[in-house]
Amino acid sequence: MTITATMRTTFREQGFVVVPGVLTEEQLATGRALVAVELEKSPPEPGHVGFHFVWPRFEDGPHPLLDFYRETVAPLAAELVRPELGVDDPDFAQVATTIPSWSHRPGAPHVDGVASLQEDGSPYTFSVLAGVWLSDQLGEYQGNLHVWPGTHLRFGEYLAEHGADALAELNKDTTGAPYPKIELGEQIQTFGTAGSVLFAHYLLGHNIGGNTGPDRRETIYYRLQAHGHGDRWRDVMADPLSEFRAG
Q1: Can you give the pLDDT at residue 10?
Q2: Which end of the chain is more exposed for a tag (fewer CB within 10 A), N or C?
Q3: How far is CA 16 from CA 155, 165, 190, in A?
C-alpha cells in the first residue's frame, strides 16, 4: 500500500486520511500481541469501561513497538511528508483502548501537547498523528476517533494572526478540551477496517469517541515529527501544510 495523490489531497484539505489495508494478517496479529503485552504491564481496573491508555517509551533502546512502527507506518509517513525533510522515529507510542460499553460523544475537539509545556514554555508540537487500527471501526461508536475536518487550516490561520505562541496559551484552558475559538464545522467519526492506518494533522481538531459495540477498540498511535520540526515549529504552526507533499 502506498499514499496516493488523492490521499495526499484529502489529507491537505481535510486534515486527515485513512489508508486501508496497510497491515497483513501477520502484522495485525503482531500488533494485537504487542498491545496485550502492554496491557498486561498496565491493565485497566477490574470492571473499567471507557478509555484506557498505556504510554511505552523508547529511550532505553530497542523496543518492539518501535520495530512495528518502522515496518508498518514509517514507509507511508515518508510518502506524506516532504521528501527533503524525512520523518524522525517517534520517542514513544500510545496504546489506546476503549472498553465497551461506554456511551460518550465528545462535545468539543482538542489539540495535543498543551496540557503541560516544555521547560522553555513551548508546547509539545509534532507534525502528524499516525494511528494503526487493530480493530474494525465500521459503524458509529465503536471507539472511533471524532474529527472536525478542515480545522487544521483554520487553526493555522488563527496562529498566523495571533502568533504561534498563542498555542501555548491554551495551557490555561480548564475545559479538558483545549482548542481555540474558531469555526469548527462538522463533527464526524472516522471509519475503516482493522489493518488501516489513520494520519491526522497535528492541528486537526479531534477527540475520543464512545464504544457501544461488542469489542474493545485497539489502536497504536505514534506522534511523528518531520526532521527539524522542533527548530521551526512556530513557522509550521502558522503554515500548516509546509511540511507535507502536495498532491
Answers
A1: 98
A2: C
A3: 14, 24, 9
CATH code assigned to 13-238: 2.60.120.620
Cβ-proximal residues to 70 (8 Å cutoff; 6+ apart), any chain: 89
Euclidean distance between CA atoms 166 and 182, whole angstroms: 13
Q: Check if the beta carbon of residue 135 is closer than 8 Å to that of residue 141.
A: no
Cis-peptide into 242, omega within 30 deg: no
Q: Does position 61 have pLDDT exceeding 90, yes or no?
A: no
115-122 contact pairs (CB < 8 A, 24+): 115/171, 115/178, 116/171, 117/168, 117/171, 121/168, 122/165, 122/168, 122/233
User: In a 3-state reduction of DSSP, which class is residue 97?
Assistant: strand
Q: What is the rounded end-to-end Cα distance, in angstroms, of the chain?
A: 17
pLDDT given at position 175: 87
